Amino acid sequence: MNPVVLSVAFSVAILASLLVKFWLSTRQMRHVAAHRAAVPAAFAGTVPLEAHQKAADYTLAKLRLGIVNDAFGSAVLICWTLLGGLAALNDLVLGWVAPHWGAMACQLLLVGAFMFISAALELPFDLYSTFRLEQRFGFNKTTPALFVSDMLKSTLLGILIGAPLLALVLWIMQATGAHWWAWAWVALSVFQLLAMVIYPTLIAPLFNKFEPLADAALVTRVQTLMQRCGFRAKGFFVMDGSRRSAHANAYFTGFGAGKRVVFFDTLLKRLNGDEVEAVLAHELGHFAHRHIARRVVLMLAFSLAGFALLGWLATQAGFYLGLGVVPNLPASNDALALLLFMMGLPPFMFFVAPIFASLSRRDEYQADAYARSKANAADLVRALLKLYEDNASTLTPDPVYVRFYYSHPPASSRIAALGMADANLAGARA
């Protein structure tokens, strides 16, 4: 591999992706701002002007922050790679740790130091987003103490779970020969599947409280809906989402006998029983159409391809040189290879993002259609309108921006696909 070619290609990918992000963001900003003054005709009888303008202002504020964050992230990426930041960190770790603790400790510490520095660099954006932007629009419920608590818990979990997994992958890279990437993929896949099983019952409760749904009438409605759809759940729970944010949601999680339905408390406060039933029918639609299973298979397939690519790149001196690191092949460069691959791939993958966004929007349409067949379309429309309003989601996104980024279709497209004509929207907000 020619390191100069890789350096040029990487630089072009970073610059091109950044320019496209800026172009898309400015398109979205202009489109949203141009339609801020009036509610779209299709929603004129259902969405208050004040809510429409709040959504526009919230969207614009997030886009401005996103532009700064993208520019900063690209600069940091260049510093880590082409300007030698990762190489310098590696030399520092080697100098301090290698004489005392050995190669594995060096690699673990290198990854840990990289993650710590990266998190520290992103912290100002997280703080601003939570305590300024979200606070300004009335969404933030997180206290400084809770923010610190969440950060400490996430860090501790990352160490307790991530460090042993990383050590296993690094050991596999060293011990299993040229096809290490296949064994590493197997180990990571087993971990990811296991995480999907244990997350709802062991991990999520560390951050939120989950209480059984106490509304007996709603429990009966939900049970009846699930029986009608051919599903069973281990339980119905309410999550204290309002502890951190005013945003509302619901989800269906778990596998096999461990399936459970989770409602945000903010959702239950906003929607009536018919609307909650329609939202749950949408979530069940994802399982009925096997969207979750397909996404898991797709995720595993892409991770296998990624490991195979990394298995080849890790043996190429040009891969390291092209991304700012002088290699010492065949000595232990495994942690360096993992970090360089993790940083080097996203600028190239950015340009295939519209494909995945399109697939996700297709799944949402299918889930909506399923909900329409199992519940009332007007109830789902009412719920969608309330959720779009409560989450300050703009009703007037730029079509190109939608095609590139949106994992969910815009409100107008979803409602039209549900068969609700403009004239019916006024009656949908009862």
Could you explain the architecture of this structure?
With 430 residues, the chain is mainly α. It has a domain at 1-140 and 306-430. The chain contains 18 helices and 4 strands. The chain has helices spanning 3-34, 49-80, 85-101, 103-136, 144-175, 180-203, 216-229, 265-270, 273-288, 291-313, 317-322, 334-344, 346-349, 353-374, 377-390, 399-405, 411-417, 422-428, and strands spanning 210-212, 235-239, 250-253, 260-264. Strand 3 (250-253) and strand 4 form a beta hairpin. The longest helix has 34 residues, at 103-136. The termini are far apart.
What is the H-and-E element order? Answer: HHHHHHEHEEEHHHHHHHHHHH
* Mean pLDDT across all amino acids: 88
For the secondary structure, the number of strands is 4
Order of neighbouring strands in the sheet with most strands: 1-2-4-3
Which range does the strand content fall in? under 5%
Number of helices: 18
Structural class: mainly alpha
Tell me about the largest β-sheet.
4 strands, mixed
Gyration radius from CA atoms, angstroms? 24 Å
Estimate percent helicity: over 70%
Unreliable residue stretches: none
Globally, the shape reads globular
Amino- and carboxy-terminal Cα gap = 64 Å
